[in-house]
Amino acid sequence: MKINLISDTVTKPSPGMLDAMMSAKVGDDVFKEDPTVNALEDQVARMFGMEAALFFPSGTMANQTGIKLHTQPGEQLICHEYAHIYNYEGGGVSFNSGVSCKLLEGGSGMMTAEQVAAAINPPDFYHSPLTSLVCIENTTNKGGGACWDIKELKKIKNICDENGLAYHLDGARLWNALVAKKETPKQYGELFDTISVCFSKGLGCPVGSVLIGSQELIGKALRIRKVFGGGMRQAGFLGAAAIYALDNNIERLAEDHKRAKEIGQLLNELSCIGKVAPIETNIVIFEIDEQKLSVADFTKKLEKHNVHIIDMGQGKLRMVTHYDYTQEMHEIVLNVLDKL
Ligand SMILES: *Cc1c(COP(=O)(O)O)cnc(C)c1O
Questions:
Q1: Is the pTM for the entire model greater than 0.90?
Q2: pLDDT tens across 301-338, in order?
Q3: Residues within 6 Å of ligand 1 by CB
Q4: What is the best residue among 64, 86, 170 to mutate for testing ligand 1's pocket, by most ligand atoms within 8 Å of CB?
Q5: Closest-CA residue to 170 (of 115, 117, 109, 256)
Q6: How far is the CA of 271 from the centre of ligand 1 (A)?
Q7: How far apart are CA 20 and CA 238, in angstroms?
Q8: Less packed terminus of the chain by CB within 10 Å, N or C?
Q9: Which domains does the chain have, with CATH numbers?
């Protein structure tokens, strides 16, 4: 039995999800005639208390569209140095929008409102790029699945308002944050101009993300999605998986979080393991004590038991728990780690 902990994107649709997909009513979504995609977009917009939503084939495209909506070429956005939009979207910020990133430091992929305020270029100082957007990631991916304090997000929102900046949330794993912090989507809908959410991470869908915002912004996003080549035809088969996931797979994320914490606790007790980053959700990031064991030997030992994890470089390893990681697998993993 292969135990794959490299990411929460490795899940395959469950039988219930496949049934929902197979019986979806579909139409041509490029003509906005797919009833299932329309229902999904309505459902997500309502959940967040926002006016409109648009279905995308990937979280990357949803984020890139958000950035394009809020910026003009030559301008600058502010984000954390760990941000997915900066590190893992193929340089799309510069390629698609002609925008540069002002990168901020801070623990677990998060910065403070004070740092954001200090990073805004004075608008009348025409030598610097004009700051036009602040991007937040919740939970933080490279930051180890950490959840933002919503009070800090409100402070940053105030700074955006005072300075006329747009505010975008990369919420690929926002579902995990909502469950871990017992928050509601509406609390986020009140703060951000646009929010992207993924269905293909913890929620177990094969494909799909949604961008949420005002009617006006989502109207413009439809054109940008077309330009990016993201218009899909009978996309309701995918939309049905997302609706199924919203109705069935959110609360269970707590199980993934519990298992990640149990793995973290055990790692903390092992002598060959260095620092284990704090675990709030489903991501475990840790270092090997390379005096005792090399990273390569560690991963090899796990692979011998068919347990697969990812090397993030710089001596850091990552495990991610997910929908297809069962209790049976979890017990095997704990056992294998315990015997290292
Ligand atoms: C996965 C992820 C995305 C979107 O990635 P896709 O592979 O394009 O769906 C965006 N932001 C974060 C933080 C992610 O983890």
A1: yes
A2: 999 999 999 998 888 999 999 999 999 999 999 999 99
A3: 58-60, 63, 84, 137, 141, 170, 172, 198, 200-201, 209
A4: 170
A5: 109
A6: 33
A7: 9
A8: N
A9: 3-8+252-339 (3.90.1150.10), 15-248 (3.40.640.10)
